[in-house]
Specification:
Blueprint lengths: L2 H11 L5 E3 L7 H8 L6 E9 L2 E8 L6 H8 L3 E3 L2 H8 L17 E4 L9 E2 L6 E3 L3 H8 L2 E3 L9
Parallel strand pairs: 2-6, 3-5, 5-8
Antiparallel strand pairs: 1-7, 2-3, 2-4
Length: 157
């Protein structure tokens, strides 16, 4: 599944968006930023959580830290990160390639407002060496995401 399901997602919903495939791993924010020649904040990381009895995805800028208090306020309960095996089973994507596109299981997607600091962000595309360049608002529109504020303000370097 994974890269293929993301390809099918974009072919059906946004054929103008190209999937970027690199020979090098982009499985971490630092690796992805270096490989794509962008600052770490432009890498859109997708994190999977269990809140109560439901699973959900949060997409945030790569250099943002989650704020547990804001997560609890936004979702009404404590959020617990999912383990790698559960993430793969739910999304169909390997850790390092998780994205909100072409999911194996329909999941609610939330985009953190931190993404709006950039005109273009680079989320993974279902594999540890793939990504797409996309406007954060377009990404949210394509996946039916809701905007939330669940991150701490990034600390300047």
């Amino acid at each position: 599944m994974s890269l293929q399901s993301v390809r099918a997602f974009f072919a059906a919903k946004a054929p103008e968006i190209a999937i970027i495939e690199l020979a090098t791993s982009t499985a971490t924010v630092a690796l992805a930023a270096e490989a794509h020649g962008v600052e770490p904040g432009q890498i859109a990381k997708t994190l999977a959580f269990r809140v109560g009895e439901r699973e959900l995805l949060v997409v945030a800028r790569g250099d943002a830290r989650l704020d547990n208090r804001k997560l609890k306020e936004a979702f009404g309960s404590k959020a617990k990160m999912l383990d790698a095996e559960t993430v793969v089973a739910l999304t169909g994507h390997p850790v390092g390639g998780v994205c909100p596109f072409g999911l194996a299981t329909p999941l609610p997607v939330y985009c953190d407002r931190s993404l709006l600091d950039y005109a273009v962000v680079l989320p993974a595309a279902g594999a540890i060496h793939s990504a797409v360049r996309i406007c954060p608002r377009r990404m949210a529109e394509l996946v039916g995401a809701e905007w939330v504020d669940v991150c701490q303000a990034p600390v300047p370097a």
